[in-house]
Amino acid sequence: MRRALACTLPLALLAACRVGGDGAKETITWKGPVGDGARVALRLRDGRVTVEEGTGDSAEGVLTVTRRTGKPSVTLQVVQDARGIVACVQYEAEARCDADAYAVSAATGGRSVTAVLRLPRGRSLDIATDNSPITVDAPSAAAVLRTGNGRIRVRDVAGPLVVTTSNASVRATGTRGAVSIETSNGAIRLVPDSVGGDVTLVTSNGSVETELPASASAALRAQTSNGAIEFALPGTIRARESGSLDAVLGAGTHRFTVTTSNGRVAFKARGNGSDSGDDN
């Protein structure tokens, strides 16, 4: 059973309140406890999303809404489901807030939302947006990050990480579980703390670079249609041809697959490459 919660409810588990603004810009906030291991989900259309590390057991959200003069504002609906919390930015009346079926039929109409989410440790993260860059600068148990057009930066993910974007770069550091990253046009950079599951990195047009720790145990496979493949790791190359490479690190425990159509592929040892990354 899904339950909507508003700031007008006394002692509500979650609160969503409009706290002020000048007509063209206003702020909406919410806060509520999230159980250890639960998922915090955020759904919106256009804007920018930043995730910071929270304190205690409560998740907090601050949304700054910018809109053109005469345009209606947005509302924020926060609900609980079986996996945790879902916060949905609503652009129209009677819209449904559901982590798996969030849909907005109305155009955003010049309304942009900048969202800052404070995530407690030990919680999972699930963000989906149409056209927003996403920056996750907080530890999470697991993360699913999806946007249509926007760069994604994420760090310190203990469990599985799934990242999808269309026309932008992706940079992930400090991962320790399975990783799946896909972008249509953009570079991918992965610097894991450990390889704790299968890894898949896919881009259509862009380079793919990864720095792996000495403890990595993986079966590597890389393919590129147009670009060089650089391998600078203490592993065994099983096969190498123009545009493809098969190699094994350690016992080859996990599959590590890299694919790009137009771009170079680089496997480096952790600490031997620059971590400046590409911020475009």
Features:
disordered C terminus; 280 residues; mainly beta; 24 strands; 0% helix; elongated; 24-stranded mixed beta sheet
Tell me about this structure.
With 280 residues, this protein is an all-beta fold. 0% of the residues lie in helices and 58% in strands. The protein contains no helices and 24 strands. The protein has a 24-stranded mixed sheet that branches. Strand 21 and strand 22 form a beta hairpin. The N and C termini lie far apart (42 Å). The N terminus and C terminus are likely disordered.
Order of helices and strands: EEEEEEEEEEEEEEEEEEEEEEEE
Give the DSSP E fraction (strand runs of 2 or more residues).
over 45%
Radius of gyration: 20 Å
**Sheet with the most strands?**
24 strands, mixed
Cα separation of the termini = 42 Å
> Mean pLDDT score, rounded?
85
What global shape is seen? elongated
Which bin fits the share of residues in helices?
under 10%
Class from helix and strand fractions: mainly beta
Question: Helix count?
Answer: 0
Give a count of the beta strands, DSSP E runs of length 2 or more: 24
Low-confidence stretches: 1-16, 18-22, 273-280
Quaternary structure annotation? single chain
Topology:
Elements: E1 3-5, E2 15-21, E3 25-33, E4 39-53, E5 58-67, E6 75-81, E7 84-90, E8 111-119, E9 124-131, E10 134-137, E11 143-147, E12 152-157, E13 161-165, E14 170-175, E15 179-185, E16 188-191, E17 199-205, E18 208-212, E19 218-226, E20 229-232, E21 236-241, E22 244-249, E23 254-262, E24 265-269
Parallel strand pairs: 4-7, 4-8, 4-9, 4-10, 9-11, 10-12, 11-13, 12-14, 13-15, 14-16, 15-17, 16-18, 17-23, 18-24, 19-23, 20-24
Antiparallel strand pairs: 1-6, 2-3, 3-5, 5-8, 6-7, 19-22, 21-22
